[in-house]
Amino acid sequence: MKLVVKVFAEITIKSRPVRKNFIRQLRRNIRNDLRLIDPEVTVSGEWDNLQVDTHVSDERSREQLVERLKCIPGVANFLEVWEYPLTDIDTIYQQCREHFGAQLAGKTLAIRCKRAGKHEFSSQDVERYVGGGLNQNCGAAGVDLKNPDMLIRIEIRHQQVFIVRAMHHGIGGYPLGSMEQVLTLMSGGFDSTVAAYQMLRRGLTTHFVFFNLGGRAHELGVKEVAHYLWQKYARGHKLLFVTVPFEGVVGEILSQVDNSQMGVILKRMMLRAATQIADELEIATLVTGEAIGQVSSQTLPNLGIIDRATDKLVLRPLIVSHKQDIIDTADAIGTGDFARNMPEYCGVISVNPTTRACPRRIAREEEKFDMAVLEQAVAQTTITSMARVIDELGESAEVEIVEQILPGQVLLDIRHPDDVEDAPLTLPDVEQRALPFYAINSQFKNLDANRQYLLYCDRGVMSRLHAQHLVSEGFTNVRVYRPQPATGPRA
Questions:
Q1: Which of 61, 165, 207, 283 could form a disulfide with 278 if both were Cys (CB 3.0 to 4.6 A apart)?
Q2: pTM, rounded to two decimals
């Protein structure tokens, strides 16, 4: 299987040294990512096109490679191609006829040819010869250059001919790792996940920091959506997830700070803590998902005062975005359903929050705050590799695990819907329901309390985590299904 990768257009207008560095990073990223599917994959090319050679033979692996390449920052689009050595135009026509001739009966067609290198013929010569031959000999309905039923693409690069089997769009952007590191404040909602994605897409190595305001379910949800972003868009890179226990900070604000100023001061405390963590990680830039006017703390005067709590550059990629546009982007990148089902916890809710905070008033209120509480929270920070963040949570989950499903029990498949579609469970005579892991905490209470439910996922980690949480919430009708030996499909 041969893939020809076209790089993001902005990369092609960089200076020669910068462009080569970007292409080199993209080549490395593609190779590292696709090796998880095909250990023998090779990636070549240094300038405007990269060629990916794989050795997969089954359709499932081919689809996985295509889906992975769609999600790698820096890839504008890519072609699945048949590759041949260049001989002459007639041979190209014969090759196209072999691949497309049987599909052309009664259809209009057009040929598009691109060339690189020196040849005795032009691209137009190839288009006329191949198009004319197919039109005359394959029962086609004619040539339509504007709106054909079939568009056949040919690329000739020096002494290679690529006949395009399929074209796929990537996410564009810059290769991840080609730009600097940033630390993104992550709450798990629509805004912070989209902001993190935009940083990843722009080539910035994006680490996550979560301020736990007191909800264990919220922490689990945020780690799951952060892990999803890493796995889908950055799994070849070593990203970090930072958790800061902020319950004490919240308590101090509630007891010491005037109600109207609490929201702004909480954000300032978060930036102070994030700044210390960023210093430790040698990161110069913070990222938030704030947008003008969404909530009281996100007015321009308040944002200006919030930013004074740090000497770091604070980026807000969504600053002028409309909420519906943010939600649409979250749905497109796969974080929308996570956000809709994200458990919320915030003990700092002002009755009449200020929209025009005064620096002197904020300073007076913060004088009441014991900064030792903030320092203690930062000292208790935990830093985990994104590759391990879910596994480490699962290691401490103690729940009952069963290997057989008894009559009357219901199997809850909590895998991501994409995984369920790719590899559905085949368990005859077993009642099954699909309830994604990101929705189970909010929707389990709607199930029949008189039934016994067995949670299933491919590795058994997510099922243990959520079963443990449900048990801690008082549900006694939940266990984990983990067949031995495993009979379920791998996701």
A1: 283
A2: 0.84
Q: How many residues does the chain have?
A: 491
**Is 113 part of the annotated catalytic residue set?**
no
**Digitized pLDDT (tens) for each residue of the chain, 491 residues in all:** 799 999 999 998 999 999 999 999 999 999 999 999 999 999 998 777 899 999 888 888 889 999 999 999 999 999 999 999 999 999 999 999 999 999 999 999 999 999 988 999 999 999 999 999 999 999 999 999 999 999 999 999 899 999 999 999 999 999 999 999 999 999 999 999 999 999 999 999 999 999 998 677 788 889 999 999 999 999 989 999 999 999 899 889 988 998 889 999 999 999 999 999 999 999 999 999 999 988 888 899 999 999 999 999 999 999 999 999 999 999 999 999 999 888 766 555 667 888 898 999 999 999 999 999 999 999 999 999 999 988 776 666 577 888 888 888 999 998 888 888 878 888 888 898 999 888 887 788 899 988 999 999 887 777 887 888 888 778 888 988 888 654 444 43
Which residue among the candidates 71, 96, 113, 457 is catalytic per the annotation?
457
3-state SS track over the chain: CEEEEEECHHHHHCCHHHHHHHHHHHHHHHHHHHCCCCCCCEEECCCCEEEEECCCCCHHHHHHHHHHHHCCCCEEEEEEEEEEECCCHHHHHHHHHHHHHHHCCCCEEEEEEEEECCCCCCHHHHHHHHHHHHHHHCCCCEECCCCCCEEEEEEEECCEEEEEEEEEECCCCCCCCCCCEEEEECCCCHHHHHHHHHHHHCCCEEEEEEEECCCHHHHHHHHHHHHHHHHHHCCCCCCEEEEEECHHHHHHHHHHCCHHHHHHHHHHHHHHHHHHHHHHHCCCEEECCCCCCCCHHHCHHHHHHHHCCCCCEEECCCCCCCHHHHHHHHHHHCCHHHHHCCCCCCCCCCCCCCCCCCHHHHHHHHHCCCHHHHHHHHHCCEEEECCCHHHHHHHCCCCCEECCCCCCCEEEECCCHHHHHHCCCCCCCCEEEECCHHHHHHHHHHCCCCCCEEEECCCCHHHHHHHHHHHHCCCCCEEEECCCCCCCCCC
Cα 366 to Cα 261: distance, rounded to the nearest angstrom: 10
State the residue for tokens 């292409």: 23
Based on its alpha-carbon atoms, the radius of gyration of the chain, rounded to whole angstroms, reads 27
Cα–Cα distances in Å, from 457 out to 294, 317, 462? 37, 35, 6
